Task: structure prediction
Amino acid sequence: MLQIENIRKTFPGVVALDAVSFSVKEGEIHTLLGENGAGKSTLMNVLTGLYHPDRGSIRLAGEEVHFTSPRDSLSRGIGMVHQHFMLVPAHSVFENILLALDGVPNFFKRREWKAKIQALIDEFQLDLDLDTPVWKLSIGAQQWIELIKLLMRDCRLLILDEPTAVLTPQEANRLFDVLRRLKEQGKSIIFISHKMREVMAISDRVTILKKGRSIDTLARGEFDEARLASLMIGHDRIPEWQKNLQMSDEIVLTIDNLSVRNDRGLADLDKFNLTLKKGEILGIAGVAGNGQKALAEVLTGLRNATQGRILARGEDITNSNARRSYIAGIAHIPEDLKAIGIAPDMSVDENLIMKSFKNGAFRTWIFQDKRAIRRNAEEKIEQFAIKSGPDGTPVRYLSGGNIQKVIIARELSEEPSVLVALYPTRGLDIGSAEYVHKVIADGADQGMSTILIAEDLDELLKLSDRIAVMFRGRLIGYADPRSTTREEIGLMMSGENRNAGSAA
Amino acid sequence: MKLVIERREISSRLFRFSAPLVSIAVALFVAGFLLLAGDINPLAAYQEIIVESLGSRYGLSETLVKTTPLIFAGLGVSLAFRMQIWNIGAEGQLYMGAMGATWVALFSGIQNHWLMLTAMFLAAFMCGGVWAGVAGFLRARWQVNEVIVTLLMNYIAILWIDYLVYGPWKDPRGFNFPYTAVFADTARFAEYFNTRLHSGFFLALACALILFLFIERTIWGYEIKVIGSNPKAAQYAGMQTGMAIFGVLFLSGAIAGLAGFSEVAGLQHRLQHGISPGYGYTAIIIAWLAKRSAIGVVIVSFLLGVLFVGGESLQLTWQLPVAFVYAFQGLILFFLLASDFFIIYRPRLIRR
Result:
């Protein structure tokens, strides 16, 4: 049905797609698998007409097509559910769907159109009320709206870009059921993911992308997790590490009934509670947007609490001056590295001392000790194997993985007692991601406590000593990664807790 | 064929450093057409600019006299720019600095020469600093845009000085001219080589050196650079960006205020209407041309001093309006900004 041949797309200084070829048959679920940066999103933007390829051809039902805009590709039956939804929050579900349709007359029969859409909702047994305003809906439900929009337009090829990133495991399973039914109706689906479990569960065929090239396409039966992983990673070296069980009951940090309000006066954290023990890795699970970011920001001093207390070893530091100095001892791996982790125009040397530039080691009176700063940089570059370019190269010229290493080297250089890591592996290739895991696990051995906020349950289960689950700014409960199941955590992520505090 | 604009991976060092010179050259070329339109031979005019400003002891001293306030104001502006704080109020801060120094000179009654100059220095420093500090406070406290505040406060400062020199501070024996009484000798800088060159020039050089060390070598300078490069990262690292914004704007205004001190103590010896012909605005161009480096400011200020002095002589010989000098400055800035674009991006023709 769809044939893509030898697509190449370059951006200034980057070859995003080099040579990508694959085909999608009618009525199949075709997965695009690849690490972050492998070119999946670029490829889909080419396919939906947002980008124009430099080279190569796209054939739809045998006929070569050149899409000039997403509207163009949509009219040919190719529709995409983006990671970021395109919805009007104040309008109802019905109005949002109507907005996306062509051929609705100016004076239309409301009841008739509603019935049409309702029929579709019933067909797939979705739990969606047409008159509810969108802002009241969960992220999962909003994704249904995006899907219905495309189905109402009779799209033959549906593209879903990492649709499960915002879903609980239960919601994801629900989505997979719907996708299978769509497949039975003869629709083709391109499913983009890097979560191996999902790929195994749903794909008819898998095309592996690596560094802008399509490596291979395998049909069901030809692939298993190990095969896919090795194709996806190739010959990259993966750092090895081992996790030791941390057994300590010493509590280093207590969060007690903490609330944080955002600009709109809504609570990002709502009477949130948490205890962190010495040397443990505490995973925070939750669907994105349920207060994880606010938690990281309040712990690292970027935001203030509106209510509640933060206790460090029993001492209240919520609003005292001690907070500032205590925060100085909290290491932080931020979510958006380039946006907040580095001063991009400054050198690696200078970025490495960003938190410690006032230390006696790096200054004499008010003057910086350039030699000591350089020595420090040489040590860190060696120790963390940072590829930093010639001396004085601004950090922004480094690759994402190396920027991450600069930040980690800086954050861990002062042997912090607490590390707050917010999606620390997002956007990293597997080698770099494993390196981050190793650093966190090694730190735990040294007695460092880590709050690890991540969206990938597998990552959390593998690394954490305990997992705390957040929902709408509240702590739902703790789970023990050795005895819990994905289903149990999934239920907790949607706000249910059957055995509160079992592992606390 | 299609023209595409690409981002350069790494901008060439040579290109970056030659850009200011190239933009001056192109500005000279384009300004040549302005001169031609006025029936003036551009080459003769340019030759005259060089000869008049550099060709004699008098010309050179006059150039340095013009360079002096430009260095102060340029340093002040470039310090703020370093932190991505856009202080475009150096003109007003200069006026306020001049006012502070004048107040001490006329009304303090200090008899000792050095004590007097020190007091004038501090008064100018504080007045310029507080004037810019208002914008710093508003920005740090309520995120009020400092561009608007510093710009509008220029007009307030200039009109305030006018009020003083037309009103309460007017020289009673001044035949109603808008200026104050002339300063006593204790409140004047020494002059050198029988020219108008005064101590202010050397003070400006010292100021540039101190500011260079401040930015490149101290922990405060480091903080300023981090905040300028990425304020969010600075906040993550525990820096108090609000205090830094206020402090830097204060210091920036204080240094610009020293330009006013140097003008009244070294050159005018009184406060008068229109004490600056736009040095504070030229300072913006200087800071940009100098790539915000303190040493660069000295060099660029000298070049623009040449232009000021040469432009004055063009006015005399060819009745060219002073607006030509500003038009030329505008052209330099224009081409410099354009060259910045080409430093970051590269145009390329591709065949489809």
